[in-house]
Amino acid sequence: MEIHIAVEGHHDLSGQIYRQLRAGILEGRLAGGTRLPSTRDLATQLGVSRKTTLDVFERLLSEGYLTARAGSGTFVADGLERLPVERSPHARAAEASRDRSTIRRKDAARALPLWEQMPESLPPRPSVPSPYDFIGGATDRTLFPFDVWRRCVNHALRAQARGAGIYREAAGEQELRLAISRYLAFNRAVSSNWEEVIVTQGAQHALDLLARITLGPGEVAAIEDPGYPPAHACFMATGARVAHVPVDSEGLVVGKLPDNARVVYVTPSHQFPLGMPMSLERRVELLEWAQKRGAVIIEDDYDCEYRFEGRPMEPLKSLDRAGLVAYVGTFSKTIFPELRVGYVVPPASLYVPLVKARQIADWHGCTLTQTALASFMLNGDFAKHLRRMHKTYAARRATLLDHLQGGLAPWFEPIVPTAGIHMAARLRAPLTEEAVVSAARAASIGLYGLAPFHQRVKPQAGLIFGYGNIGEQQIDTALKKLASILPRLAS
With 90 as the cut, is the pLDDT of residue 464 above it? Predict the structure, then answer.
């Protein structure tokens, strides 16, 4: 059979073919079970090399869009036709009306006694002497190009001096929203107009705004277990009930979601804290589940920029054709947390309520920082910084993995992620999490257990190794010290 694919020029041939095949699958033009032509026949049809079509098929196979059957050929994967599609204007209007009634805040006197129920927002960080600290979520400020950033800030100061001195848009500075939309389209396959982007004071602020407009007291928010404690705290603060849903090797177990969940919070690209990505089949299942129940999916893509193995798994947002996913991102893991800049690309139905909630809370963020960051991104300096840091973090990750699979192998079973700046590892018996953390701290090594990230699921002893703010040599020295400690601890 022949497939209608248009190849223009000689630039990015594999990318052109990949995007058109993927679009045909997602839009239903290539139904599940459809047998595709062989890579040789497709190359002949399109007038390209067979290596080009092989690369395309390998990528689609690795991402789950295609399946290979020995002796039979390559077929479109079953199940993708279940992806929700945009509903009719009448159905959207009915849902919007239902959403407006749902998001009205209930009388404050009826609120639950929240603060007695609030968990610790983050596991406490002990005081550990530098430089052997494996804290997660931290970046290396010493490698940030502050000379370039200074020029961007000076540009922002000049722009501010020329301004009218009035309140700005609650959604953020237009230049930064444009820079974010371009970045997401190129790097994360999230297509959005700049007017759909809302700038926030970090990812946590985005979660807070989303919780405010989607949850009322007594309503249910579902989060991963183990998962991100600040998300738990954020949903509890609205008076919502939080359901803790287990994860497995494919990510969130959709079959365990409560039917009455109004919001589902997930980290599909790099599950926090364990690190595995959500499989394509599970993503389709989650989108299907959310549409049937009118739920909102909050996708936290917190450190997707650093990928070290395999091809990138595109976000849930890129599969969402029905307006179900609010996509949340942050610059805390690419620049540094003190910047306090994040963003959300919400479904169209939530955009206006989010902007109103932002305006009520603090009107808008720091325009100086936003203008400087826009300049940093639009001038190409952000992309250069990411490339430099990717090489640095790749080397640190390799050193960490060498130790976990080498001298520390008798004690650890690493859960090797494809992306991110931390790695989780399970402890082998008879070692206990508390004993290892305590012994390491006595040796001036900062290690952090996985137990605080569990809520209902019984935790399996393990550690989280952040390598964003510890150098390659320090990782090597610290883990050699740890390898000398653990045999005595086990005995």
Answer: yes
Mean residue pLDDT across the chain:
86
> From start to end of 280-367, where are the E strands?
296-300, 325-330, 342-345
Residue 3 CB coordination number (10 Å)? 17
For 316, the domain range is 89-119+146-380
**Which is it for the CA torsion 23, 26, 29, 35, positive or negative?**
positive
417 pLDDT above the threshold of 50: yes
Q: Report DSSP state, residue 296.
A: E
Using CA atoms, how far apart are residues 26 and 316, in angstroms rounded to an integer?
A: 13
199 and 177 co-located in one domain: yes
Do 387 and 376 belong together in one domain? no
Q: Which of 329, 308, 331 is closest to 377 using CA atoms?
A: 331
438 in any annotated domain: yes
Q: Per the domain annotation, does 439 fall within a domain?
A: yes
Instruction: Tell me: do 311 and 354 sit in the same domain.
Output: yes
Nearest to residue 154, comparing CAs of 371, 327, 335, 360? 371
Count structural domains, the chain.
Answer: 3
pLDDT in the model for residue 125: 52
pLDDT tens digits, residue range 295-313? 999 999 988 888 887 666 7
